[in-house]
Design goal:
The chain is of the alpha/beta class and 305 residues long. It has two domains: 59 residues, no CATH class; 244 residues, TIM Barrel (Alpha-Beta Barrel). It has 13 helices and eight strands. The protein has an eight-stranded parallel beta sheet. The site of flavin-adenine dinucleotide has 22 residues, from strand 4 and strand 7. The site of flavin-adenine dinucleotide (FAD) has 22 residues, from strand 4 and strand 7. This is proline dehydrogenase. GO terms for molecular function: nucleotide binding; proline dehydrogenase activity. InterPro entries: FAD-linked_oxidoreductase-like, PRODH_bac_arc, Proline_DH_dom, Proline_oxidase.
């Protein structure tokens, strides 16, 4: 792994650094580039703009790794409020929600996470939309896939996320190819025993793309990598997939011109929009992915302090 990436991911878990970054006056401005805001109304405003520009949305209420049931319940209630607002604003057909099981209690008890995720899925269905379960570090993969399988018994459109950096993922792709699956490279610091290096991760992404397109499910290709976007387009043609039978996904604030270009070409493009006050871990993963973002952040911190 790139040394700067390891350093930033280590900082993500460091409380002293967290306090400095979270309270620096400029942080709020910089964070805004990647995060819609702290309130439901901010998430709705950004969703409205993205939908008006021809893009779809998946919303993530930030707040992973909760350590008590009350916090998990608060996160569920935030999703319920969001879903009501999406419905009331007529945005639910174009906006789904992404849920991290660790935000709804997975670290406390898998059954609690299942019960809480079920509350979000039920509300999403009532509002005319659906849920995708984000994937977290590899120690949670089996548990997340178990919860997913349970949720799909009642809500079959619940989306899965698979990470091409994991050695196991090609098999998971084959198993889930008939369903809604988001394919990503993977964002966590993982040991070599379970994960590929960068080059192998890209090759794995292509193998997984083929497996998903060959199935009769709905693949969601989440990457900003121009080479992989080209390969997905070429492979979709090869498998005779029409736009709308698969989609591209990118993060809010990352390659917006490319998002608009794909949408103009008639592709479905879904933007992952995080919001909420717990933005620190999310921001750190974005910085770790792209050292240029770190320079941007550091420069902004210095010039405002
Ligand atoms: C919609 C969505 C949902 C996700 N959900 C999850 C999840 O549930 N679990 C998980 O582990 N990870 C998730 N991720 C993160 C993912 O795993 C990767 O960490 C992240 O997308 C970075 O990998 P990449 O494929 O975009 O390409 P990278 O390997 O980061 O970059 C490859 C190339 O893409 C281009 N590029 C990348 N970033 C930029 C930029 N900011 N500006 C311009 N060019 C750029 C550059 O040419 C770069 O060389 C998600 C990502 C997206 C887009």
């Amino acid at each position: 792994m790139h040394p700067l990436r390891s350093l930033i991911l280590a900082a993500a878990g460091n409380d002293a650094i967290r306090r400095v970054v979270a309270t620096a006056p400029v942080s709020r401005d910089v964070v805004r580039r990647f995060v819609a805001g702290e309130q439901t109304a901010d998430a709705i405003a950004v969703t409205r703009e993205l939908v008006a520009s021809g893009r779809s949305v998946t919303l993530d209420h930030l707040g992973e790794d909760v350590t008590d049931a009350e916090q998990a319940d608060q996160n569920v209630r935030a999703y319920l409020e969001l879903l009501d607002a999406l419905h009331a604003e007529g945005l639910a057909a174009r906006a789904e929600v992404s849920v991290k099981l660790s935000a709804v209690g997975q670290k406390l008890d898998e059954r609690l996470a299942l019960a809480n995720a079920s509350r979000v899925c039920a509300a999403a269905e009532q509002c005319g939309t659906t849920v995708t379960l984000d994937m977290e570090d590899h120690t949670t993969t089996d548990s997340t896939l178990r919860v997913l399988a349970e949720l799909r018994r009642t809500w079959p459109s619940t989306g899965a996320v698979l990470q091409s950096y994991l050695r196991r993922t090609f098999d998971d792709c084959k198993a889930l190819a008939g369903t809604r699956v988001r394919l990503v490279k993977g964002a966590y610091a993982e040991p070599e025993s379970v994960a590929f290096d960068e080059h192998e991760t890209d090759l794995s992404y292509v193998r997984c793309t083929n497996a998903l397109l060959a199935g009769d499910g709905y693949p969601m290709f989440a990457t900003h990598d121009p080479r992989l976007v080209r390969i997905v387009a070429e492979r979709a043609r090869w498998y005779d997939r029409k736009p709308g039978t698969y989609e591209y996904q990118m993060l809010f604030g990352v390659r917006p011109d490319e998002q608009r270009r794909l949408a103009r070409e008639g592709e479905t493009v879904r933007v992952y929009v995080p919001y909420g006050s717990q933005w620190y871990g999310y921001l750190m993963r974005r910085l770790a992915e792209r050292p240029a973002n770190t320079t941007f952040f550091a420069r902004a911190l210095v010039s405002h302090s």
